[in-house]
Design brief:
By secondary structure, the chain is mainly α. It has three domains: 50 residues, Arc Repressor Mutant, subunit A; 43 residues; 47 residues, Arc Repressor Mutant, subunit A (Orthogonal Bundle). The protein is 67% helix and 0% strand. The protein has nine helices and no strands. Helix 5 runs antiparallel to helix 6. The termini are far apart.
C-alpha cells in the first residue's frame, strides 16, 4: 500500500524536526503537483507540526557542543532556513567562546597549549574546521579562562 503524502510527511516529522525546504525536497518526488506539496506544508505549519524555528533550535542544541557559529549557520542555510531565524537561533545559543574551549579541552587538554608554531597551526586549523571564528580561536589559544 502506497502511503499518502500527508502520511509520509508525518512519518518524517515523527522521527525528527525538519526545515520546511528540507521536508519539501524529501516529499517532492511523491507529490502530484507543487501546489499540493505547498498546501500540505502550509497546513503542517498552521498546525504547528512543522516549524523552521524549532528546527533551528534543535540543530543548534544537537550540534552546538561540537561546532562553531560559522559552521552551524552554513548548515542551517544549506537546509533552507531563513537568515533571520539562523541569526536569532545562534544568538540564543551558548557562548561560542565557551563551546570552543570545551572542544579544545576534549581534543588537546592533555597536550596543553601549543609550544611551537606547528602545534599552534595544527590546533588553529582544528578549531577553524569546526567553524569557530578567528577571534574565538585566538582567545582559546591565548590560554586562561578570563574573558577579555
Amino acid at each position: 500500500m502506497d502511503p499518502t503524502l500527508r502520511e509520509r510527511a508525518l512519518r518524517l516529522l515523527a522521527r525528527r524536526e525538519h526545515a520546511r525546504a528540507e521536508l519539501a525536497k524529501k516529499l517532492a518526488p511523491h507529490a502530484e503537483s507543487a501546489a499540493e506539496l505547498d498546501a500540505l506544508l502550509d497546513d503542517l505549519a498552521a498546525r504547528r507540526l512543522l516549524s523552521d524555528a524549532r528546527y533551528v533550535e534543535m540543530r543548534v542544541a544537537a550540534r552546538g557542543a561540537r561546532y562553531g557559529n560559522a559552521r552551524l549557520a552554513q548548515e542551517l542555510r544549506a537546509a533552507g532556513v531563513d537568515g533571520e531565524l539562523v541569526e536569532s537561533g545562534l544568538a540564543a545559543a551558548e557562548d561560542e567562546l565557551a563551546r570552543a574551549r570545551e572542544v579544545w579541552q576534549r581534543k588537546y587538554g592533555s597536550v596543553g597549549l601549543p609550544a611551537d608554531t606547528a602545534g599552534r597551526a595544527r590546533q588553529t586549523n582544528f578549531l577553524m574546521r569546526r567553524g569557530f571564528s578567528g577571534e574565538t580561536i585566538r582567545r582559546v589559544l591565548r590560554g586562561g579562562h578570563e574573558d577579555d
